[in-house]
Amino acid sequence: MSEQLSALSLGVYPWQQDQWLQLQNMIQQQRFPHALIVGGVPGLGKLTFVNTLVAALLCQNKINDNACGHCKSCQLLAANSHPDFKLLQPVEAGKAILVDQVRNIQHSMATTAQQGGARVVVINGASDLNLNSANALLKQLEEPGNNSYFLLIHQWPKMVLPTVRSRCQLLDIAKPTPKQGLNWLQQQLSDDELTIEATESLLQLANGGPLKAIELHASKAQDLRHQMLVELTAILRGQKTPIEVAQIWQKKPLVPMLNWWVEWLNDLVKLKMTEDASHVSNTDIVKLLQAVAKRSDIVAIYTLLENIIQQLNFINQRRNLNPQLVCEELLHQWYFLVKSGN
Ligand SMILES: [Zn+2]
């Protein structure tokens, strides 16, 4: 789901500092790209980063290359009524960006900037452009006009169409270092009195995205992950059948669950290759992973891994899937996984 842009939140997170300086230099030296895709895993604050960039590009009175927050341009932007700033995103979460939406901004980009400065279009969901809307956008990306900028936010892990990607510069927001992420998260969750271990595991669950970690914390994702592990173990022990577990899973949020499963299987691959547990990312379940790795064949692990990734892609492409059947098939493979190594 795309994050919706309502009130502009501005700021640069600690892990974004280097890349922010890089872009500031580009603005200063007037070599800021006309089309930039900002990517990176969920929960790194891409939208806030882009908003801050928009403010800096539009501000008429920059202070140290940052938006001043006071000029006419900054005020209009804060009030969500800047005439030279356009936002494109799916009308409804989960839908594509439509060709008419792209055409609507074409006109405003073709006229002179009303505030006399830059013109900026943010596409919040570069991966939500379908073929038609992408085609309508291509010409603008090629001939953007003077002082016009397109900032596209990549909704990872969905794909951005190659035709769009090839016309943009790419900037992947880097994940914080584990220490940086942990420090920041501890500050944010200081009222919750979480242990360091719990905070670490939260960050790990979020695949290193600190804002995602906060979201997961709020949604009690740790409980869901724990329950999932209990059920996977029950299948291996023959205490539950894949069909029984599929009935439970089909009512749950499949995307995060499948993503976790992918990570566990990646860890299994590492264990098969090196037998060295220090490379495992999911350190809390090393014993389980080692037991499964011992009894599984690497080809079977890869096959399950590929199938899960394929299902995730189908979900991202919004294909209509039968969750019960998807879960049943994958869980069957999981059941046979530990028999594959014999
Ligand atoms: Zn300003």
What does this structure look like?
This protein has 15 helices and five strands. The N terminus is likely disordered. Helices cover 52% and strands 7% of the residues. It has three domains: 159 residues, P-loop containing nucleotide triphosphate hydrolases (Rossmann fold); 42 residues; 117 residues, Zinc Finger, Delta Prime, domain 3 (Up-down Bundle). The chain has 342 residues and is an alpha/beta fold. It is elongated, with a radius of gyration of 23 Å. Strands 2-3-4-1-5 form a five-stranded parallel sheet, sandwiched between helices. It binds zinc ion.
Keywords:
single chain, 342 residues, alpha/beta, Rossmann fold, Zinc Finger, Delta Prime, domain 3, 5-stranded parallel β-sheet, 52% helix, 7% strand, elongated, binds zinc ion
Brief sketch in words of this structure:
The chain has 342 residues and is α/β, with parallel strands linked by helices.
